[in-house]
Each structure stands twice: as C-alpha cells, then as structure tokens.
Amino acid sequence: MRLSRREFVTWVAASGITLATSRLRAAQAARFDETQILPGAAAPRPVHGATGRIDAVAKVTGAKLYASDFRAADMDGWPPTTAHALLLRGTDAAHVFAGLDLSALDASAQPTKIVTAEDLARAGTRVPPFYAGDLLCPVGNTPLYLGQPVALLLFETFDAYDRARVRLRQTSPVKLGVETGPLAQPNYAALRFTRVAGDAPGAPDVYSPLMEGWISPGFFEAGGRPIWQPLPTSEGGQYKKGATYGDEIRAFIAANDPGTLVLDRSFRTQSVDPMFLEPECGLGWYDPKAKALQLVLGVQSPLEASEALGHLLGEATPTLRPERIETHFAHLGGGFGGRDHTPFPLYVALAAMFLPGRPIRLAHDRFQQFQGGIKRHAFEMRSQVAIDRASGRMRAFAADHILDGGGLANYSASVAAVSATSAIGIYDIPKVDVTTLAEHSRGVTAGSMRGYGVLQTTAALETLVDEAAEAIGLDPITLRRRNLLKAGGLTMTGNPWTVSVRTPEILDKLEGHALWRERALAQKTASADTLVGTGVAVCAKDYGTGADCALGRVEVDPKGRIRIFCDAVEMGNGIGTAVANRVAQFLGRMADEVSVARIDAFDALGLVTSGDPYVITQEEQDTASRNPRWVPAVSSATSASIGAHVGTQAAAEAARIILRFGMWPAALALWGIGQEDPRHFLWDEAFWQDGMLILSGLPPLAQEEVAAKAHAMGALTGAMAHAFSRWAWAQAAFPLDGLDWAADIDALAVRRGEGPFKVLDRSFIAFPPASYNRIGTSFTSSCGTLVRVEIDKASGAVRVMQAYSVLECGQALSPQVVLGQAQGGFAMGVGYALLENLPPFEDGPGNGRWNLGDYVVARASDLPIHALEVEVLPPVAPNEPPKGMAEVVMIPVVPAILNAIHDATGHRFQALPVTPDDVRRVL
Fold first, then answer.
1. Which residues have CB under 8 Å from 495's CB, separation 6+?
2. What would the pLDDT profile of 232-267 be if each residue is shown by its tens digit?
3. Degrees (nearest 5) of the Cα angle 254, 257, 258?
4. Contact, 593 vs 37, CB < 8 A?
5. Of the ranges 298-302, 424-428, 524-528, which one carries the lowest mean pLDDT score?
6. What phi and psi, each to the nearest 5 degrees, are found at residue 753?
7. How far is Cα 767 from Cα 298, in angstroms, rounded to an integer?
8. Within 10 Å of residue 702's Cβ, how many Cβ atoms?
9. Which of 333, 434, 454, 522 would be 422's cystine partner, CB 3.0–4.6 Å?
10. Cα pseudo-dihedral 89, 94, 97, 98, rounded to 10
11. 219 falls in which pLDDT band (50, 70, 90)?
C-alpha cells in the first residue's frame, strides 16, 4: 500500500479505511507507565557498560503489563463489560468438514453468535495475501491442516465462554463428512544455491548466486512427496546452468578419491513450540455509531498487523466495514519469532466486528496456543562433505534440505533460503551445492522462530565436522581453524561478510578454556556408573532481513531531559534500554522517557512507500527515490535479531544530529569559541562523562547547562529520522545550518527550541542497490560453545553439568540483556537438543490435547545454573556498531551437546531430541 503524505501513522488505505496505530496508553496508565525516570548520567563515550535499565523495575515487581492483562474496563472510553470469543479449530485434515454440533453445550454455555466461513464470505472480508488460505474452513471442504479454524463462537459472559471452552475440549463439536485424505497443495519454495570458487586465491568465482541470481527447479506432486525435475532449458536456462555446476560438485564428492575423506550423513530435527510466556491475546471493540474498530494487541510487527487488518475489512459490506481502525500495541510476553506476522489479530478483529457495540476478548489458553500457534520447522537433511586428508581442508560440500511448513505458507520460503545459504556455517569451502524445499503439509503452520533454520542446519553441520575431525585424526578445534572463512572471504552466495569476523578469537578462547583442556581428565575421574563427555561447536548467524528499517525520534528539553520514541517492540529484548544507552553516547545522560512500539510519532516525516523492497528493480527504486519522502519500507517487525542493530539506528542518528547542530553550538557559545577558532570543528572529539561535556583544555559543561543554552539560542533540540538497510545503510544528505550533512538515514525532520518538527528534503540519496537482494547475508555474529555432560548408564539420562559460551556482538548496548539473552538461548538449546518434541500430524499439537503436561521444556534442574559461563568479546573498535546476537547464542548449544554425548558414548545421534531411551538403547 502507499502511505499518504498527509500523515504517516494515521493513513488512508486504498480501501478508504483510516488506520491508526499507537502505543497503548489508556486508563491503565495510572497503574503502569512503560517509561521510567532514571537518575544518573551516561558513561564516557563509547558506552561499554549499561547506565540504566528502562523497564527492569517493572519486570521484577510485576508491574509490567501485557496485552493479556487488559479488559474493556481498563480502556478509556470503552464500555466497561468484556465479552469473550472462542476460536474453534478442527482436529482432522482427512475428512470433509460437515458443520458444527453444539448439542453438548447446555443452555448456560450457548454462544450468542457463531461466525462461520459463510458469514465471512457474505461480509466480503478478504484474506491478506501473506495468509493466503481460508481463515475459517468452509462447510464441505477438507481442512487444509490440523488445527485450522472452523468457527468463532462469541459469548456475552465469561461464565458461558468458560463452560463452553472446557466442554468443547472434551467433546469436539466438529462434524466430519466423507474421507478425502489430506489435501495436496503447492509447496512453498524450491531453491538451489551453488557456488564454484575461482581456481586461485582471490580469483573471481566461476559461478555463484550473487553473479547469476537465485535459481529454482520445477517440481510436481506425486504420492504426497515432491519429485525434483529440472525446468526445460527454454524456460529455465539459469537453472540448468547452476544445476550443471551443482551436479559436477556432487560427482566430485562421489568420486571418492583415496586422498579425500567423504562423509554422507542424514540428520533430522523436530518441530517445537516457541513457548513464550504469554499465549496470544487480543481485545477488540467495534463502535457502530462511530464506525470505529479499536484493538489491543501484542505483536512483533505492528505496522504489518495494521495493514493486514485494513486489507481484511477494506471491501467488507457497509454494516461490517469500519471507517477507522485504531490498533493499540501493548508489551508482549515473549516472541521468539512466533508473534511475527501471526494471523491472530485478524480473528480478534472479526470477533469484534461480528459482535458490534460490545468489547470482546480473544485469548488463547496453552492448549489453544499449542494447537494454533506458529511452530519451528522440522527438517530432514542430507549432507555430504569432501575433506583433503593431508591438509584437513574442506574441498566440497553438498546438502539437500526438506522442511515441513505446515498448513499455511507464513515464512517457510524465507526460512528455507536462510537455512540453505547458511549451510556451510563459518567455513570457507570452494565448491558448494545446496538444494532446499519448503513443503506444504497438514501439520500446524511453521514460520519465523529463533534460529530461523540456521539452528537446524548448524546442528547437522557441526556434528559432521566433529565426525570428520575424528576420522582424519585432527583435534576438532584444529580442523575448524584450518577451514575458517576469513575476513574478506566469500560466503556460499558469493559475497563477503561486511562486518568484523571474530571466529579465530572465539576458537582461541574455546581451546584455552579449562573445560576443553581438562576433558580427558574429566572422563578418567568419572564415577563407575557415569559417562562424561565434552563437546564443542561454533556458528555464525546472520541478522537482518535485507529490507530492515527503523524510526527514531529524540528530544531534549531545556533541563536536559531526554525523550525517545522508536518503532521497535519490547519483547524481552531490552530494546528500551538499548536505544537509551545508544542515545546517551551522544546526549550525555540516560533518557527520562523511552516509548517503544510507536509508529504514531513520526507524522512530520510524511513518508510514502511503494512496491516490495525485496523484489524491487533498480529502475523502480531509482524512479521512486526521486520523491524525497519515498523510502523502500516504513517499519520493520522486531525480529531477525535486529533490535540493537536496526532498532536503535534511527534514534542514534537523530541524537548525533542533535549533538552536532544543537548541543555543540550551545557548548561553543558557553566556552566563547567562535567559528574562526579551530576548536569549532572538534565536536567529534568531545565526550560525555558523569553528565559533563568534556573537551581537552576547556572547562567541563553540565549537560543541563548545554541543553538550556541550546533552547535559548533556538538551536536544534529534536530530530526524527528513518533508516533503511539492505545489507548496508541507505545514506542521505540534508541541508543543516549551511552544511550538506550526510548520515546513515533516508528521512529527517528537526525542531529548534520548542518549535514544531519540520521535514527536510534530502539533497542526496543513495539506497543500497536492488541487486543486494540476492546477496544472501552480509551481517553476521559468531558464537562458540563448550558443553560437558554426564550420562547415567542405567537410565540414559543426559545432564549438562558445565558450559562455556563466548560470543561477539559488536558494541553491547546493554551487557546485562546480552547476558540474559545468552542464558535464555542456552536453555532453549538444551530443550531443543534433549527435551522438546512435537510429533507431526494427528499425534501432534493440531489435535488440541497438548499442554505442558506432555510437552517438556528445560527447567532449572536441566541446566547448569551455577556452571554456565558466558564471555562477550569487546568490540574490535570503540565505534563498532552493535550487532544482532539473540539467535546466535542458542545455535551452537545443540551440536555442542550432541558432540559431548558422542564423546561420552562413542555414538553419534542424528535425530533430535536425544532422549534417555535413545541413549539407553545404544549403551
């Protein structure tokens, strides 16, 4: 859609529905404000340590509120009584849905209204393209997948809703018709990534995705499984060219040269649930008199949710088409990707529209969240590697991935691409061929989740590398070191990482740690009934999507108080603290107010967008960018580990501009320095310490004094900016105080003194080339993990006793949060390796019977609570920007555990999770 120039956050969709979004502020503000006033000044620039925590007190005191905490009585101007909605889901995907039988409900549990697919059709609702498929399964159709919604039941009272919820869990109301078997649907993606490096170091690649573009084979359905088949040459010449090189690589591996070690292994990973603390929940109210729909939601992607709602109701019949949709975004109790582009808000909106005049709540309990929430993709992988026995250098690698996307597409195509382009991890391999297929199945929908496919492929790769080291007779860390991708080397898509590469340091840290050095001693001193093993794994994880953007607004008042608005979402990632600390580097103190999930505070920018930033052509981008208000995308979901890297960028650049054109001129005036004085230009050598602005040879200035002078002079005291990244930041120049000021942003508005914000036309713009869309990844963080396990011989139980993780993330804006993310990632890795498992299909979560009584997550007793050491490498330079790290800290945990189990038992497990029964069988 195209956003109007009239205003940014409140815009008019093509359907004519006005969409408005805001951070939730209502009657509940008296109980909790998401901002806090924090005392104290910023640390010296750059900030390596936290100077404060924005929401820490609210977290530990239980004052932090989530979407699930709200009822109608908490909302200003809403009717006080809350109705309740129940989303019914089918538990069979092999028979025709023949309708509902609610006779099991007595009179006190009957719904006020039943909403079916037929009602949606009559109402003229539209399914947003991202969620293509029936929102409610029509009578006479076979459900696309287990757990597909079939109806919405709306209840006036909680008691009726609660009775129905419990009863219908015991007795399904879904009537079944004739057996059809599962429906065959098109798969979601089929891609092939092939690279052949040049013959000499530094020589151009012979073939790569960066050179030739991404290619796809054709395939058709047969027997429920896809059969790969090349496209005809006349239609698919690009595919034939790439496939020819790929087949040559596979033939090279199969040649089985005596001097080459060849390993060919299969690996399987399971489906798991994100298991965020707060199941999905929403509150809606449609006021038919005002024709306004208001919603309270907790999602990772506020702008996407608003756009989807506008599409859903944009062509509805007049009685069910609002003129205005207002979405209020609350904190969310965890995301891990499972709340990024979730269809849940669509059902909240439908519940409200079909019970007009009554606020209504749709809230999953844990049974319902298991049945309908987005899951991690299960993978089947075959990996082949050829390694020169003499040198230990990897010469060729081939892999084939099949991932189960479940019943709706969601992010399956993207996960397939990311997992494939990360299939060789941290290694430099000259010949690589990887195919990947994301298939439709009748399982619960899989989508975005922490690790994003790299978790699965790294588990297969790092266990394979360990096996290769053993077969060649090399130390596992030595083999890894010999094959590292160095700075400037090319990834498997043919491009270099454009950030620091720290894997050599990580390997040095792992090798020197006592856990590794004393691994043989640990085995010798183990008790007779216990096996001990130590494992290692290292990984790299991309961060960003290739079309990321951020909105940031920073203001300084005459007393030096700082207020920040940003569009990033707080979901346990500490984004409020991160953006406050990054701004503090330029403005001398922690923010007094940080407001997150705010896409309603940037009206002055007047942004417009068009097209899809992932597929836009260079010509389209060049034409569109002539409009000084155009940007490739307006707001990103808080996902893909982009919080610190992307979410703080616009605010940081805004703060830098305030420093240069507001605080610095004020400081010069206080020091009595004129333009002819060479010190006039030393703004980037000044720094803040203990709330004082310091420049060598001059008296320190209090931050409050500088701010007051800036206001008195009418200098620049506020800035709002938009930033866009496609594996590099867009760069633009803006006219400021006689200068053409260049910055890593693409839109800017400023205020002077207490005046209004005024947008500035950019005098120059350089968006990253559209061709960067086929790079794969350019930003990466690295992490290595050592794990020591003890295995009880009698039971086969595996216990992680000690662990050490070392990571790099550029500048750590909030070290406490980085540590917390690493600890949480470790716990999730333990659960994935040893505990968590959702069976596919009829025995899996789609049957509606799964809860935490059956699904086991890692608890304190499963973790080395007091024996987990996390080390964060300092940035390579004081000005190194922050990197995304929330995913990378989880990924090496899994293969490190598997390698430790092999070290203890001599057996290599190639399917997850590894249960006590599995271990006992091999013992």
1. 210, 775, 776, 778
2. 444 556 888 999 999 999 999 999 889 999 999 999
3. 135
4. yes
5. 298-302
6. 60, -130
7. 32
8. 16
9. 454
10. -140
11. low
Task: Tell me the pTM.
Answer: 0.94
- In the predicted model, is pLDDT for residue 47 greater than 60? no
Residue 469, SS3?
Answer: helix
Secondary structure letter of residue 647 according to DSSP:
I
What's the rounded Cα separation, in Å, for the pair 547 and 623?
18
Give per-residue burial for 562-572: e unless 16+ CB within 10 Å, then b: bbbbbbbbbbb
Q: Residue 693 forms beta bridges with which residues?
A: 688, 701
Q: Which long-range contacts (CB under 8 A, 24 or more apart) does 680-685 make?
A: 683/659
Residue listed under structure tokens 């505990």: 835
| DSSP helix/strand/coil, 786 | strand
User: How far is the C-alpha of 785 from the C-alpha of 509, rounded, in Å?
Assistant: 10
Contacting residues for 865 by C-beta, under 8 A, at least 6 apart: none
DSSP helix/strand/coil, 899: helix
CB of 586 closer than 8 Å to CB of 349: no
Residue in this structure with the two tokens 């023949």, named with its chain if needed: 98
Q: Which residue has the tokens 């931050």?
A: 703
Residues 805 and 871: beta-carbon distance below 8 Å = yes
d(CA 668, CA 372): 60
For residue 659, the SS3 value is: helix
Q: How many CB atoms lie within 10 A of CB 759?
A: 19
Domains annotated for the chain, with CATH where assigned, are 190-271+376-544+777-922 (3.30.365.10), 548-725+731-766 (3.30.365.10)
Distance CA 858, CA 879 (A): 38
Per-residue pLDDT of 612-658, as tens digits, reads 999 999 999 999 999 999 999 999 988 878 889 999 999 999 999 99
Q: Whose CA is closest to 99, among 133, 136, 135, 140?
A: 140
What's the CA gap between 637 and 808, in Å, rounded?
24
Helices 454-472 and 893-905: angle between axes, nearest 10 degrees: 30
Average pLDDT over every residue of 15-26: 70
Encode pLDDT of 691-744 as tens digits.
Answer: 999 999 999 999 999 999 999 999 999 999 999 999 999 999 999 999 999 999
User: CA–CA separation, 562 vs 560, rounded Å?
Assistant: 6
Alpha carbon distance 643, 884 (integer Å) = 7
Q: What CA–CA distance (Å, rounded) separates 550 from 491?
A: 27
The encoded tokens of residue 159 equal: 């008691």
Query: 308 in the Ramachandran plot: left (φ > 0), alpha (ψ -120 to 50) or beta?
Result: alpha
Give percent above pLDDT 70 in the chain.
93
CA dihedral 343, 345, 346, 349 (to 10 degrees): 170
CA gap 19, 6 in Å, rounded: 13
